[in-house]
Amino acid sequence: MSLPGESDTGSGPVLEVEDLSVTFRGRGGLAARALDGVNLAIGAAEIVAVVGESGCGKTTLGRSILGLVRPTSGTIRFRGEPLSYAARALKRYRRDVQLVLQDPTGALNPRHSVYEAVAEGPRVHRLGDEPGRVARSLAQAGLRPPERFLLRYPHELSGGQRQRVVIAGALAVEPKVVVADEPVSSLDASVRGEILALLLRLREQLGLSLLVVTHDLGLAWNIADRIVVMYLGRVVEQGSTEQVLSHPQHPYTRALLSVVPEIEHIPSVVLSGEAPDPSRIPPGCRFHPRCPALADGTAAAAGIADDCRGRELGVLPATGDHLAACHLRPPPLHPPAALRESAG
User: Fold this and answer.
1) Can the peptide bond before residue 145 be classed as cis, meaning omega within 30 degrees of 0?
2) Which of 32, 47, 271, 314 is deepest in the core (most CB within 10 A)?
3) Helix (H, G, I), strand (E, B), or coil: what is residue 51?
4) What DSSP string describes 195-215?
5) DSSP 8-state secondary structure symbol assigned to residue 310
6) Strand partners, 77
7) Torsion angle in degrees (nearest 10) through CA of 326, 332, 336, 342
């Protein structure tokens, strides 16, 4: 069995992020560290979910992986080769690494038919058999028979159908990796399961690797092989889905999990305040101003309160076993048997 983040052939990750940092300049010239030393790896046919609150850096990470944001430092590698930002190399790369946006209505041009929307990618990359690619991609995305949809316009489709058209547009260029940014957040609850099932089926049928960016740990539970938890520009916990959800090691992960209805083995946690400004990252553990373990005296009882406030934690590696950037390690928790069975 290959290690997390490695392909089944043992040839290493399909896509790898190494020590990635992105800094934006804000008002008054303050440097906001949107990403601050992020390591991430995605193996062949693997689904990795990046989770966290708004402002944690997960969307910037996705945009950096797509080459839409140039990092301040660090490296992105695809099949072992560093990403080049030369126009021609970036165009080739974007055929292999495609984006699925969260809002299908905004992603589709209302004046373009379904055929035109799906054909855009093959035209940009000058790929042959355009009609065949469009029909095949629509069928793979679950719009069958494709002939029924080719001449329709976005306003004539349901929300789920529009999202399937966006997915078909990504599939039309035969990518190796798809970055899905909140792929079901704008859909009705009745449709979300269908789209998640579609993504799982595409992974099985096409060998796609997926990076799913989401704030919803319940979604990650249902679709991901591994979970990466981000807070204030840095990965604070990563591991297999079973490890992270059944034994969360970071207080922030525990707080996120405590509001997932399906997960009942973690008491409710209410975080105080908002995530700090990325231009003013706190010293020590960057989560310490909101940490329940520090607020309730748990950290002091363990003798680590000063470390939490003043000793910075190391950057987590991209692969390996279950890891967390936390001075405190909580005791193991085990979910009810019914929850474990539903995950299997």
Assistant:
1) yes
2) 47
3) strand
4) HHHHHHHHHHHH--EEEEEES
5) H
6) 16, 82
7) 50
Tokens of 311: 């000793």
Q: Coil, helix or strand for 265?
A: coil
In terms of C-beta density within 10 A (0-12 exposed, 13-18 middle, 19 or more buried), how is residue 331 classed? Answer: exposed
In degrees, rounded to 5, the angle at the alpha carbon of residue 291 between the alpha carbons of residues 290 and 296 is: 115
Q: Is 84 exposed, middle or buried (0-12, 13-18, 19+ CB in 10 A)?
A: middle
The amino acid at 225: D
* 159, 186 Cβ separation under 8 angstroms: yes
The answer to whether residues 263 and 339 touch, using CB atoms and an 8 Å cutoff, is yes
Question: Two tokens at 80?
Answer: 């072992």
Distance CA(179)–CA(70), nearest Å, equals 17
Give residue 187's pLDDT band: very low, low, confident or very high (50, 70, 90): confident
170 class by beta-carbon count within 10 Å (0-12 exposed, 13-18 middle, 19+ buried): buried
What are the tens digits of pLDDT across the range 251-281?
Answer: 999 999 888 877 767 777 878 778 888 988 9
Distance CA 289, CA 303 (A): 17
The reported pTM is: 0.90
Gyration radius (Cα) of the chain, Å: 21
Strand residue runs (E) in 43-169: 47-51, 73-78, 81-82, 97-100
Rounded Cα distance, 76 and 67, in Å: 9
Domain with CATH 3.40.50.300 in the chain: 15-79+176-343
Edge-to-edge strand ranges of the sheet holding 15-25: 31-42, 15-25, 73-78, 81-82
What are the pLDDT digits (tens) for 64-106? 999 999 999 999 999 999 999 999 999 999 999 999 988 888 8
Quick one: pLDDT at residue 252?
94
Which tokens hold the place of 50? 């990046």
Does residue 36 surpass a pLDDT of 80?
A: yes
Residue 231 and residue 217: Cα distance in Å, rounded?
14
* Superfamily name and number for 15-79+176-343: P-loop containing nucleotide triphosphate hydrolases (3.40.50.300)
